[in-house]
Design a protein that fits this description.
Layout: H1 3-22, E1 26-34, E2 37-44, E3 48-57, H2 71-87, E4 93-106, E5 109-118
Parallel strand pairs: 3-4
Antiparallel strand pairs: 1-2, 2-3, 4-5
Length: 125
């Protein structure tokens, strides 16, 4: 992965976490990795535990960012969420969200162009 993509992705995840915190969520984990899966963010409110995939793009030339959360990526999310819940059982509703970030780098400095929160993506069974 190029340095540009890494920096843009890291920026997108920071923007997504800040957005969620402004909405009243507590960020429990960032980049939770297990064999066979990863979750960019794990957040919670009083009633819901949310597993979040953040997709950052500089443009929509290849479609909307959420379109990249395909069956394979959803399976990785499901696996990581199951592992997390095994470690930290929750008595809450569980939800899978996507946050789309459109951002650019200008002179090495990232800036946010747009953010879209898509709660409750459907995980194919």
């Amino acid at each position: 992965m190029s340095r540009y993509k890494k920096d843009l992705g890291d920026f997108g995840e920071r923007m997504a976490a800040e957005f969620l915190m402004r909405q009243g969520y507590e960020i429990l984990e960032r980049n939770f990795r297990v064999p066979g899966g990863e979750l960019d963010l794990i957040a919670e409110t009083d009633a819901v535990l949310v597993f979040v995939e953040v997709k950052t793009r500089s443009n929509d030339r290849f479609g909307q960012p959420a379109e990249a959360v395909d069956r394979r990526k959803q399976e990785h999310m499901r696996r990581a969420a199951a592992y997390y819940l095994m470690l930290y059982p929750a008595e809450k509703e569980v939800r899978f969200d996507v946050i789309e970030i459109f951002a650019s780098m200008q002179d090495g400095v990232p800036f946010l162009k747009d953010l879209r929160h898509i709660p409750g993506i459907i995980l194919e069974g």
